Amino acid sequence: MEDALNLQQTSIEQYNIKVERRYQQLPPIAVVKSKLFQILINVVKNAIEALIAGDEQEKRMIITLEEDEKNLIRLSIRDNGIGISKEHLDKIFSFGFTTKTNGHGYGIHSCALIAKELGGSITARSDGLNQGATFILAIPQRGLFDQS
Hints:
Layout: H1 2-7, H2 9-14, E1 18-23, H3 33-53, E2 60-67, E3 72-79, H4 86-89, H5 107-117, E4 121-125, E5 133-140
Parallel strand pairs: 1-2
Antiparallel strand pairs: 2-3, 3-5, 4-5
C-alpha cells in the first residue's frame, strides 16, 4: 500500500490531501505483488482525481486494511471527493466506461479483472455525487499465487 501512495506522493502533497491509515496487523498474504500493486495504483490515482474534482476544502483519503471473519483481506480506500452517481455505480467496472474527459475506462475495469484473478473482488460504494466514494478490495490470504 505504501508503495502505491509513494508513487502518488507529489499529487498528495500538491493538493494537500490528508491520508489516514487504519492498518490492522495482518499475516503475510501470498499474491502476485505486481498484480496487487496495479490495483492499488489505479484505485489511489482515481481517489486523488476524485478529491481534486470535489468541492471539499479538507481533502481526505482513509485507507483501512483488515482481515474479516471469512479470512479475506479487505483493503478499503475512502475519499470525500466528487463521488459516483447512482446510475454510474453499476457501470464503473465495465470495459471502456468513464466519466472523465481524458479517461479511457480501462483502469477500474482492469482492477476488477485482476481482483478476480487473485480469487477476490473489488466493489465500489457511494451515496451519490459530492458524497465521496469507497472502493473495497477483498482477496483471500492465500490468493492465487505463482512464482512469476
